[in-house]
Amino acid sequence: MATATRPTVLSVDDEAGIRDAICLELEDDFDVVTTASGMQLGAADYVTKPWEHGEVVATIQRILREVDAPPGVLLVSDDAAALVPVALALEGRIRVRAMSVAAASASNFAVQVVVLHAPDRSKVSALSALSARFPNATTVWVTDESPQHIDKTLSDISANLGRHGVPRLSRVVLAAVELMVRFREAFGLTAGAYYVRLRIAVACRLLRDTDEKMEDIAQQVGYSGAANLSRAFKEVMGMRPGEFRRSSV
Q1: Separation between Cα atoms, residue 175 and residue 191, nearest integer Å
Q2: Which one in 1, 23, 232, 245 has a CA-CA gap of 20 to 30 Å to 78?
Q3: Paired residues of 34 in beta bridges
Q4: Quick one: which H or E segment has residue 112?
């Protein structure tokens, strides 16, 4: 019989040996109930076979932390860079999590305010379903990424956080956000991605026009070593620096 002081874990697997192994791993910390069949529907999370040692316990402990944690702000956008300024402004003041629409639809994150980024009408339908997914949360819609609109978004979030309210963006932060937005409009890249491209462009020039060692080139363009330069170079150029040098001869 499960005690009232320990969490209960449901183990679902069609192999009796696997169910027994899970019981042995978890029974010191949890009350374990097993069954041969079931559905993921309603489960907070799941671990697939084969799992690493300790993965099951770590997953359960993470879920319990989420359940016991105070509600926070959920930022939802399929554009990974879209709500970054909002996330940075909130961090350290309240729990904040950024997710895609699909991830948010299956998330158990405790939400007080959910921010939905809909850059065009095609996103509205899928995002609207999330309002029902988090019925106790206040919904804030974002359609425009301009600095002024982001500042308003923070103001709307703050109004619904009570004592956890966040300050409005300073002029310096607004200017930085505006610069990031302008980068995306002009180059189709974030400021960080543009900076990477800039460094790789300089590396290309040095690889083509000089016989300097790879380590020296890496340092000149701001990478801590040749391996880091090589990884970034391949992501941008589709080949290693050495391949590029040989093809440019």
Answers
A1: 13
A2: 232
A3: 11
A4: strand 111-117
How would you class 211 by CB atoms within 10 Å of its CB: exposed for 0-12, middle for 13-18, buried for 19 or more? exposed
168 contact partners, CB below 8 Å, separation of at least 6: 151, 154, 155, 158
pLDDT tens for residues 142-170?
A: 886 665 677 788 888 888 776 555 555 56
| 174: Cβ contacts below 8 Å, ≥ 6 apart | 147, 148, 151
> CA-to-CA distance for 130 and 78, rounded, in angstroms?
13
Residue 74: alpha-carbon gap to chain centroid:
11
Residue type, 215: E
Distances from the Cα of 142 to the Cα of 25, 149, 159, 245, angstroms: 45, 8, 16, 45
Confidence at residue 101, expressed as pLDDT on a 0 to 100 scale? 87
- Distance from C-alpha of 193 to C-alpha of 187, rounded to nearest angstrom: 10
Across 229-244, b (16+ Cβ under 10 Å) vs e yields bbebbeeebeeebeeb
Instruction: Give residue 132's identity as a one-letter amino acid code.
Output: A
User: Token digits for 29?
Assistant: 């910390």
β-sheet with 96-99: strand ranges across: 96-99, 72-76, 111-117, 138-142
Task: Give the Cα separation of 124 and 131 in Å (integer).
Answer: 11
- For residue 223, is it left (φ>0), alpha (ψ between -120 and 50) or beta? beta
Q: b/e map of 20-30 (b: 16 or more CB within 10 Å)?
A: eebeebbeeeb
**Counting every residue, how long is the chain?**
249
